[in-house]
Specification:
single chain, Arc Repressor Mutant, subunit A, transcription, transcription regulation, Transcriptional regulator, ArsR family, about 50% helix, HTH_ArsR_DNA-bd_dom, three-stranded antiparallel sheet, about 130 residues, about 10% strand
């Protein structure tokens, strides 16, 4: 855990989750439109890199569903490379971030994650 977290006495406030549009329908519902396919491919492509997948998993599994960059940086690559991969995850719509003083906190976009899960699980259950 980061040094700044241990020393902070500030209360942790709950996050308000924005409503996000679903990425696409389940694969067995109808063919994806060109736009849906592009958006979905960006998400899966972002998760196709092992370092990005580890970073995404670290954020998703972190207590409270958000993590300071200092809590998730130990993935075997340099800090600039971590920043690059986090940027790619944000661009794909999988993470959002918020700067708090000198630290950046990342959180998983739950609506997008749920939509990606539904894309595959509803199709697999059919």
């Amino acid at each position: 855990m980061c040094q700044h977290r241990r020393m902070s006495n500030a209360p942790v406030l709950p996050l308000i989750q924005p409503e996000a549009a679903a990425c696409c329908p389940p694969l067995n519902e109808r063919p994806l439109t060109s736009e849906e396919a592009e958006r979905t491919a960006r998400m899966f492509k972002a998760l196709g890199d092992p370092v990005r997948l580890r970073l995404f998993s670290a954020v998703a599994s972190h207590e409270g569903g958000e993590a300071c960059v200092c809590d998730i940086s130990d993935v075997g690559v340099s800090q600039p490379t971590v920043s690059h991969h986090l940027k790619k995850l944000k661009e794909a719509g999988l993470l959002s971030s918020e700067r708090r003083g000198t630290w950046v906190y990342y959180r998983v976009e739950p609506a997008v994650l749920a939509a990606m899960g539904a894309l595959l699980t509803k199709a697999a259950a059919a």
